[in-house]
Amino acid sequence: MARRLRFSPLRMVTLVSAALFALPVLTVVWHIFLPSDGNWAHLAATVLPRYVTNSLVLMLGVGAGVLVVGVATAWLVTACRFPGRRIFEWALILPLAVPTYVMAYAYTDFFQFSGPLQSGLRGLTGWGPQDLHLPEIRSLGGAILVFIAALFPYVYLVVRAAFLQRSAGILETGRTLGLGPGQLFRRLAVPLARPAMVAGLALALMETLADYGAVSYFGVQTFTTGIYRTWFSLGDRVAASQLSAGLLGFVVLLLLLERWSRRRARYHRADAGARRPARFDLQGWHRYGAAVVCGLPVLMGFVLPALVLLSMLLSLGEFNWPSHYGDWISNTLLLGLVTATVATGLALLIGSALRLGRSRVLAVAGRLAGLGYAIPGSIIAVGVLIPFAAFDNGLDSWMREVFGLSTGLLLTGTAAGLVFAYLVRFLSVSLQTVNSGFERLSPSLDAAAQSLGAGEGRLLRRLHLPLLKGTLLTAFLLVFVDVMKELPATLIMRPFNFDTLAVTAHNFAIDERLAEAALPSLTIVAVGLLPVIILARLIATSSTVAAAGEAGPGGPGFGLAGPQAMGYQGK
Amino acid sequence: MRYWLVISALVGIGVLALGSAARAAERERVVNIYSARHYQTDEQLYAGFTKATGIEVKWIEGDQDGLLERIRNEGRNSPADLFITVDAGRLWRADQSGLLAEVRSQVLEARIPASLRHPQGRWYGLATRARIIFYNRQLVDGEQIKTYEDLADPRWQGLVCIRSSSNIYNLSLLASLIAHHGAAAAEAWAAGVVANFARDPVGGDTDQLRGLASGECGIALANTYYFARLMRSKAERDQALVKAVGVIFPNQNGRGAHVNISGAAVLRTAPHPENARAFLEYLTSREAQVYFATVNNEYPVVGGFGGNKTLRKLGAFKADTINIAVFGENQAEAQRIFDRVGWK
Known about the structure:
In chain A, 73% of the residues lie in helices and 1% in strands.
């Protein structure tokens, strides 16, 4: 016991990084206590009710949609046999490579009144412009559609893993008792996977709340667009930060819901029975029905946007490779690799510390470090800018006074500052992944190692690191994909002469040159495809190795993404 | 513990080294630009300046409010020399925050009309764009629309398409109406336009023009360069659009059409103020002005069309000469009006 009270580098790392990464979020929250310019009365009387209603409707719609799509596809690929099942098993995560804002551009081009679908229909039927009115894609409903198509993989991943691992044995028991696939699904699988469903749902909803690009392009006024408008058009940063704090309130609610949903969940399993789940052979039209149910989300979330982008690119006629194309790619890769490496390393350290020193302070610290996930990128950026610039300028003044030397801006406006902002936003992704990986390792392993005299460092190197290799790779890839798609913080914080793919796509799109935005957008998808395919391979491996240890639905923190999400089993 | 001492010492030395390196930058022949213009081709402009003066140009292109926030936080150590925007309101706001330096230059004062620059030289307009009215020739008789005020006429019910109210170009337009008619009349106008909406505001200016072509909209408001770009496009669907759409420069018998600027300002904390001024002057040179016209179909501030045939074809027009600083002054009020009348 005395070991836990001692100073330990691991605990230091945890506390320091928690403090660092919570700083921007706290900077935002701190604004609650500042007086604003009196725009609150105006906001409350005019637009605030609409922001709240739209955000709630958006969350409800997206929530219901991702649950239905994610759970249905996860069930079909784990429990049934039908044509294309093995392809769908990994193809269903391809939409992760498409940023929501890119999907919004593509959907608009395809579905809008003057787009190919409606023009084609009018041409085919001979109807005039006033006769046929499909619902406007750039609307709340359209935004819900885009988010469902883009975000359902989060639910799919988590729930699929839960079906695979958690319930294989129970499901078999159900089968031997004569339950059909429908009954099994309703009476056993869904109740068993409920915590996993909520975990995936929380992740998808946080992404929805934090999104600015897609909703602003669609002209849907949500809490997030409201924050921007208050800050920029009304010029009231304080009220905008207070709104952001309100957004955090939503998030905290989500997190509480998530924790509550798995309040009685057990995490690790003592036995290591490897069991491959038996699958139902679907008959007749059910076979094709299943293929359609799995194919449609892939079509909407990946194939359609990719094809639309491609055709936009071809419509340019004359095509020249942009002279900086290589730089955009290498900058994007560089940021992604560095951030993902640091995020994964920190997550391993923090995860170990949480596991070894079960203290309340550490648990809270771990949770604080992951708060940034649901906050829009540009709010994070300002949250980072304020303390960073204050630190830089403070240090500069001090150095001038003491040494007569000016240090200038050391952190602000550097790639390091940008990476820090990414970490604030995405650390929770790696943290949750690694944490739930830890949950699958029985604590008796640590106890055995410690009783043999292994210290923290050795435990980490010799036990945790090798056992969590797959989990760490998963965390790395997830963060990488997220960073690659990140836009608002990159726009504000990047160094001089430093463009990324996301920035370039955005610059073209905002200048209303969608066809030219297609190339960088497609490249984001293509570059993102690589890590997604590696993830998919992990999935394929994991379906042949069955549960080597019971995956909990989430970590001790927020249990958002997890290696259980990938269903990957550490070897 | 010795460990930590060594590490801290190393970090300290590193910090000092970096700091002196940063200061060395001051003497470099560099100008640092924070630009809200995001036209990839602006690099040609930078290259032209480097060629003419030997001064290297470093830039960040981003969202104007974000960049402004960054400058504000970077404080006196900000590397930014020049802030370039595509709207006068943002320059006004930067000025209100005390970020801008006064630049006196006979070159700039001679070349740029007084309404397009700050009276004390805290910012300068570089190129202009007009926000004008377009209509579908089949659905609407263009002769019946002469002014912005006409858009609120109930006879156009169900025909007007315009983008969202958080868009800066709309905010600046309403801000100018507030300046000309007062807040109450401006609010009545905005309410009238909302009552005439063909659809909820979605998309950008080009999308409104496309709405005209498809017949979903009868009347739309857009910036001139978006239309000029379509005029110059070789794509079939763009050419069809241009044929179907009529152009109205509003208020030609009165105050003139609403114009906004691409403008630039030197920052008070600029580490290279002289280079920044040289760059500003370069931006008003013939070479740079022709560039603005050629590449982005903006009107040169020095007058004329900069050799752009499309702009010439669109025709000369009378521009509103109210000092564009009012766009900034009235911006928050404009946003509140839009919110009250339910202009999304």
